[in-house]
TrEMBL record:
The chain crosses the membrane at residues 12-33, 53-76, 97-115, 135-158, 179-197, 203-225, 237-258, 278-297, 309-333, 345-364. One of its GO terms (molecular function) is acyltransferase activity, transferring groups other than amino-acyl groups. Residues 12-360 form the Acyltransferase domain. InterPro entries: Acyl_transf_3_dom, Glucan_succinyl_AcylTrfase. It comes from the Bacteria. This is Acyltransferase.
Length: 373
């Protein structure tokens, strides 16, 4: 692989990371108030419409937001490896990824469990202490850091073994046929992985059913780094796929409705040799690719980007790590409120995002925290 220039983190990519972090917080808030998915604390939706809308939001999120995180992480991995060498690179990854997994798994995760599962005999703090004393490990959303540890180790091994012969994507590859190939590989990979581990199930602390996009996009990010391809996405490439994404969003739900899923008929999308599983596996990249491309293009060319996004960038990783107990706490506080699930979601989402970034900004100021966050 050719030598990559010294790291230069483009502002628009940092803004995307902030937006994705906020979306993660909103995603988990949506699940808490009735959307489909797994979360520490869950309430029934106030209406069928509220559940459908929150589930639609979660499905669209899932098609692209974590995949984009892996794409960006892959994009900066080669530069980090080149500037630090394999030894410092490995130590840095253990500190920035391994330490948060440890702290979240043994302390923040159990705290979130204690908040969401109150005991009738002891208070939250006592329950938390019991969980810590039992060495309860809960990885929560820090599965991302855990997966990145694995991906980083594989990358470092490959760079050490084969070096310059690793895959590099050149500027001429930015064409529609290449995006179509990504869609097909992503969809086929998702279908095959879900035969092994259906979505909603874990293997080795990871929901392998979603890893087709994560593996593919991380690899693309690494291969796109030498030519800085993420900074070359233009309207000619992004806009057509943006329209494809927009038109694809309702198709899965129309298919489900025509199949009788909303009337109680089976519509299994998690895994297996069924048409709904196939439809869902290819629906995700058809939706996700367009959103990712539009994000990369629009955020780069924006003439007046919101200054707050740049100011929040240093705290995005901290907010990502700290948001679960914040989301759960706000959910518990607002639970008695007699309001629709959609209104609770909106209010809780704003409060949770604000509080998570505020807490992260305070934690970052602690001695040594910046080395990790």
């Amino acid at each position: 692989m050719e030598k990559i220039p010294a790291p230069h983190r483009s502002d628009f990519l940092d803004r995307i990371r902030v937006m994705l972090t906020i979306l993660v917080i909103l995603h988990h808030t949506a699940i808490m108030f009735g959307g489909d998915g797994g979360w520490y604390l869950r309430y029934d939706a106030s209406s069928t419409m509220a559940k459908a809308l929150l589930t639609l939001l979660c499905a669209i999120d899932q098609s692209f937001f974590m995949g984009t995180f892996f794409l960006l992480a892959g994009y900066f991995t080669p530069r980090s490896f080149d500037s630090k060498g394999w030894r410092r690179f490995g130590i840095d990854r253990l500190v920035r990824l391994g330490l948060p997994v440890f702290v979240y798994g043994f302390f923040i995760g159990p705290l979130t469990i204690a908040l969401s599962e109150p005991s009738n005999t002891v208070g939250v703090l006592e329950h938390w202490g019991v969980l810590i004393g039992r060495f309860t490990f809960n990885i929560g959303p820090l599965w991302f850091a855990y997966a990145m540890l694995i991906f980083s180790a594989i990358y470092a091994l490959l760079r050490t073994l084969i070096g310059q012969h690793m895959w590099v994507i050149k500027l001429g590859s930015l064409r529609h046929s290449s995006i179509l190939a990504i869609v097909l590989i992503w969809g086929a990979g998702a279908f095959l992985l879900r035969l092994w581990v259906p979505t909603g199930q874990e293997f080795g602390l990871l929901q392998i059913g979603y890893f087709s996009s994560y593996i593919l996009l991380f690899a693309i990010g690494c291969a796109a780094a030498p030519a800085r391809l993420l900074e070359q996405i233009d309207a000619k490439l992004a806009v057509p796929w943006g329209w494809i994404s927009l038109l694809s969003i309702p198709t899965l739900f129309i298919y489900a409705a025509l199949s009788g899923a909303f009337d109680g008929k089976p519509f299994e999308m998690h895994g297996g040799w069924t048409l709904p599983v196939t439809a869902y596996a290819f629906w995700e990249p058809m939706v996700g690719c367009g959103i990712i491309l539009m994000l990369l293009w629009r955020c780069r060319v924006a003439k007046n980007p919101a200054p707050i996004l740049s100011r929040l960038a240093p705290y995005a990783y901290g907010a990502f790590i700290l948001h679960p107990p914040v989301v759960v706490s706000i959910g518990l506080i607002l639970e008695p409120w007699e309001a629709s699930s959609l209104l609770k979601f909106a209010v809780s989402g704003v409060l949770a995002a604000t509080a998570s970034f505020a807490l992260a900004s305070a934690i970052v100021r602690l001695p040594g925290a910046r080395r990790v966050l």
